[in-house]
Give the backbone structure.
Amino acid sequence: MRSDNRLPGWAAALIGLVTGAVAVGVSLLAAGPVKASAFPVVAVGDAAVDLAPAGLKDFAIRTFGENDKPVLLAGILAVMAVLAVAVGVFAARDLRYGLAGLAAFGAVGVAAVLTRPGAGPADVIPTVAGVAAGAIALRVLLRRASAARPDDARPEETGPPVMRAGRDRYAVNRRGLLTGVLGGAAVAGVSGLAGRALSSRSEVSAARAGLVLPRPAVPAEPIPAGADLRIRGLTPFVTPSRDFYRVDTAIVVPQVDPRDWTLRIGGMVDRPVELTLADLLKRPLVEADVTLCCVSNPVGGPYAGNARWLGARLADVLRDAGVRSGADMLLSTSADGWTCGTPLDVVLDGREALLAVAMNGEALPVDHGFPVRQVVPGLYGYVSATKWVTEIKVTRFDRDTAYWTTRGWAEKGPVKTQSRIDLPRDGARVPPGRTVIAGVAWAQHRGVDAVEVRIDGGPWRRARLAEAPTADTWRQWVVDDWDAVRGRHTIEVRATDATGRPQTARRAPVTPDGATGLHTVTVAVA
């Protein structure tokens, strides 16, 4: 097991990196026929998201935005690369040390995989396969790199041994190492590409493309012509699906086959219900224009969007199940195990709370919950907007808790009145003269009644509001009579909802129930 003719450090590190790459590639290949969440790198990432405190999650979203998950995965792979180097270095001293390191890798992967919702014994196969492949690669690479050079070998065939004076002798068979590394890299690359192909979205995407949506029984009113001011650079009234924000805990987007999807409704009901997608599409479908907003949206942030949704009224489905007296919460569960607690009274008060199947005239995008998601006007997404929803339990807040409420978020998350300046951008340089100030404001299910702008601490001036089809959508606003003079200027905005309550001016962070404060931008006029 122990080598008296040790390899130089660079060779040991290279062997470790290739060993780790082979383990990752083979585990991804093995995860293909099992399921994407069984890939140990993804499982570790999901576990990291679950274990991260709310403050760290807020920091990640604030710093990296919708790229927070790729950054997390890149960080995990970087850490794995460092540990793989360590495995190679220790294995060069004694193979048993390297194998022990791989076993430790495997233990962490198995633990992470088995903690995922719905995990079964088969889910450990990718991790075990990856560790086994890594162990084989480590043995082969060490043997090839440290093989004794025949006495009659020509130096140009193997390269001269690398020597160090003293008791220890370092030597490496460079040709053997090179061919071994290239072979290992090929195995890792081919396995990884094949694994990605096996776990691709092609089947679910094809099923989505082939889904025929029925016409709405209750179509939405046409969007008023005055709802979009059509100012260049201003957020459009309807957010294109491709631009709609995505904030969730899924490292890998769940791939839910609509032919297999069911929604189970149980708990405090008289008649438990189980619906297939065909069942849901037979119900009277309703169109509604609704703005959604993430609780992690900072003041002036981008995590809000408006779309036209199509779906079945959740209240009607619940009435079919017969909600029992005393229930006050809906605990919904996503296909990836994420949970959400929604106040029951909000769903039943007459607003268009939907089990949505379409967005902006097309079946839901896979990233936004295909085949079915919840849409509830007036609540932040963490207490309402479950994507890939598969189960709804009628229960009570004092009996059950949801994913984010166990991490310190408020149980009920009504959207706070907020406004945002889109034009001019913070830090922009604008020419002197007449300058347009414009943005959006929202107070879902209450509606925005007024927006005001203040420049350099002066008097508040009333903005012109665009039309809004319902109180559940945001409204564009504009001030187009500011005569900008040279210098630096600070612009603030505030909104008032339809109940007459103004937007909170005191700046507060997103935790635990959504950010507050006036959005402020500074511009240079020159």
